[in-house]
Design goal:
The structure is a homodimer. By secondary structure, chain A is an alpha/beta fold. The first copy, chain A, has a domain at 4-184: Carbamate kinase (3-Layer(aba) Sandwich), CATH 3.40.1160. Helices cover 38% and strands 23% of the residues of chain A. In chain A, the strands form four sheets. Chain A has an eight-stranded mixed beta sheet, with helices on both faces. In chain A, helix 3 crosses helix 4. The radius of gyration of chain A is 17 Å and the shape is globular. Chain A binds chain B through residues 48, 51-53, 71, 74-80, 82-84, 86-88, 90-91, 95-100, 102-105, 132, 135, 139, 141, 148, 150, 152-156, and chain B through 48, 51-53, 71, 74-80, 82-84, 86-88, 90-91, 95-100, 102-105, 132, 135, 139, 141, 148, 150, 152-156.
Chain lengths: 262, 262
């Protein structure tokens, strides 16, 4: 039987709130067994870009990454956020190592080719090399990934953190029984966006299509769920989406929304 | 017999010059065998701090690291510089992984206590944990270290890159036959600061004291050489200081200044 591996993604308001992040990381550190953390950090990158006088553009919730924005992202994601998370996890007794996709050639990508929009230095993932990840996981290292990949030709690329989490979960599911958990600022996928008590417990591919047509699931939640279904299809055991405050319940599917096969 | 391990430090003008850095990294990538790179990056950090409106202060060539400066340093050193070096090394066929001292608890330090000057968030190294470094080195990973350490209580600390290189070299000399190479913008330690042809081939502890008294060796070169002698004393085989353009010669002591036992 395969050993278990948790792949947990945090983003949005959690990273932006020092107190919440600190509590979350203590929860993460206390989880027994193999675990990987993937973080975003868009809000802080936006703030730093503002201070540096670099203008930002978003299309469909995705950042247009020009050369200057790529610099900011590399500084904020792979530097400030990643290393502070690692230091906080070390303080909580969790032996963390922070990586981006260029480290150990772990996540190779290509610059996105899009018929209409030039997203700039945005990477679509080609390949996750599970070998180095496995070697570190087996040494009881908890890996912390910033959402950067590389093209193998010296270029770093900005890649959606949800996608990074999904691709790592997929690649590792060959070796481990992988649970993928997306933590964000809501208690799950909601029937009614203004009612935090309207969490949808389970979503199958059929109900997803239905909820999307009814405009209940929309905007940033659509790629999140598309990623979840792609992960299930590739062998990930379960995908759960919920509030970062409830990490312990989320990892046991006692909170949030579970994305499941029909 | 122990295997060989090279610990190479670059800083100053090399990192600041894209063309030179790229050539240097190709040279580094072409070196056979186990190797570790340690980088600084003060000039870029100063530029980013200026753009962000954060004022900088240096005492004896060492940056006073207030909370805002620590943020900039974490972004620039561990983020921008470290990950771009890793991506460029990957492009040159060298399987690099970028770390700071918090990653894997590799370099633990304490906040400097100084009777006169408050250096701020500056770390003096307590301990290098060679285990994870060795495990990655044995997997033919070339480690790239940014000059940040941590105190084990969640705080990142700015640590002189020369010191980082020296401490890693010392710790690894228990396991490997370590050569420590300091690359900078001069061809070696000079008898006459304005004459690049006046390289001193060898320096012993006795000649160091003499050259220091004559004010030939001064300023930033003093801690560099003090580090070198401490490294020799702790078991490092040889320390060489020279120009980054001559890396291939430097690693064979055919260029630069060699710091040797009496």
């Amino acid at each position: 039987m395969k050993e278990s591996l948790l792949v947990i993604k945090i983003g949005g308001n959690i990273i932006d709130d020092e107190g919440k992040l600190s509590l979350f990381l203590k929860d993460f550190a206390s989880i027994k067994g193999h675990k990987i953390l993937v973080h975003g950090g868009g809000k802080m990158a936006t703030r730093v870009a503002e201070v540096m006088g670099i203008s930002q553009q978003l299309i469909d919730g995705r950042r247009i990454t020009d050369a200057e924005t790529l610099k900011v992202i590399t500084m904020v994601y792979a530097g400030y956020i990643n290393k502070n998370i690692v230091a906080l996890l070390q303080a909580a007794g969790c032996n963390a190592v922070g990586l981006c996709g260029a480290d150990g050639n772990v996540i190779k990508a290509h610059k996105r080719i899009h018929p209409v929009t030039d997203y700039g230095f945005v990477g679509d993932v080609d390949e996750v090399n599970a070998g180095l990840i496995q070697s570190l996981v087996e040494q009881n290292v908890s890996l912390v990934f910033s959402p950067l990949t590389h093209n193998g030709q010296g270029l770093l690329l900005n890649t959606n953190a949800d996608t990074i989490a999904q691709e790592i979960a997929k690649a590792m599911s060959v070796l481990y029984e992988v649970s993928l958990v997306y933590c964000f600022e809501k208690p799950g996928v909601l029937m009614n966006a203004t009612d935090d008590n309207s969490v949808i417990k389970n979503i199958t591919l059929t109900s997803f299509i239905d909820l999307k047509e009814k405009n209940i699931i929309r905007e940033g939640m659509i790629p999140k769920l598309q990623n979840a279904f792609a992960a299930l299809e590739a062998g990930v055991k379960v995908v759960t989406i919920g509030h970062a405050d409830n990490l312990q319940q989320l990892i046991h599917q006692q909170s949030g929304t579970s994305i499941i096969n029909e």
